[in-house]
């Protein structure tokens, strides 16, 4: 009864949960034992738009050889079933011009709604639309004249989710879970269109390599995960994505990692055989988090022909692009409902090694190892 009361208080006030242990989480890795991954259809890209506490996002990352690195994102956030807010974010990293500051735009959206099939999102001066054939997204936003977005992201390889559903479940009765985590990926895409800024005018992203992720955190984010690692590698021939979260002790500090590797026209492999390691770190003197300086990401799985495949990407992260104080970006109403949680101080560290491009090394069966240089956008997130 005491744990039930603690959990109820945590749901309402944002306080820490009791320690249920690893039996209260069903990792998507269990599904992946039988079905490593599923190629997605338009039906898998529907917005859930939960009426209880959740954070649901669609985010598009674009990298290019010569231009800026960017992401654009729409966020649907429900707080305790009391209030729903939506936000559109644009971030432009001028990675080839050290003199220019990163442009960050985060705009509240008004009058949000979804298409009848729940596959497209609309708000005042904003639209994120899935094409009829399910192969591209159109992203338009005129909410901030500092960054007017008019982009199209078209996949050049199938999308995937790990397992059959892509879901990790949380709860003491996993047949009736009280929370979930799910990711859907388009790992290899091509961009077109522009973002128009006051300083630059239209920035053309035609031909940029892109990644799309649809993510649903179906309960309070700080209850789901204490830490995150994310890697997005885009090379001339291959794309690799890795998403890892580590739960708080309330769910046994369980590590869940999903990802895959794709090339034009196919998923090479995908599943839960990935790792993310901070090989070297330095203490951030402002908040005491161990900021990574050198990383190692690995992928392991089975190709369609049954061959074993392993891949590795490792090296220095160089100087970070940004460090984000998440609570500084959270609307005041959300902070009030979430409450202050002991030990929670979420920061996101973002990286894009520029001086030395990192290389993805892929080994398939007895074939010679393939090495491919490309762009890495990486994040390390510390929450609690």
UniProtKB/TrEMBL annotation:
<comment type="similarity">
    <text>Belongs to the SVF1 family.</text>
</comment>
<feature type="domain" description="Svf1-like C-terminal">
    <location>
        <begin position="219"/>
        <end position="384"/>
    </location>
</feature>
<dbReference type="Pfam" id="PF08622">
    <property type="entry name" value="Svf1"/>
</dbReference>
<dbReference type="InterPro" id="IPR033394">
    <property type="entry name" value="Svf1-like_C"/>
</dbReference>
<keyword id="KW-0963">Cytoplasm</keyword>
<protein>
    <submittedName>
        <fullName>Cell survival pathways protein</fullName>
    </submittedName>
</protein>
<feature type="domain" description="Svf1-like N-terminal">
    <location>
        <begin position="55"/>
        <end position="217"/>
    </location>
</feature>
<dbReference type="InterPro" id="IPR013931">
    <property type="entry name" value="Svf1-like_N"/>
</dbReference>
<dbReference type="InterPro" id="IPR051385">
    <property type="entry name" value="Ceramide-binding_SVF1"/>
</dbReference>
<dbReference type="Pfam" id="PF17187">
    <property type="entry name" value="Svf1_C"/>
</dbReference>
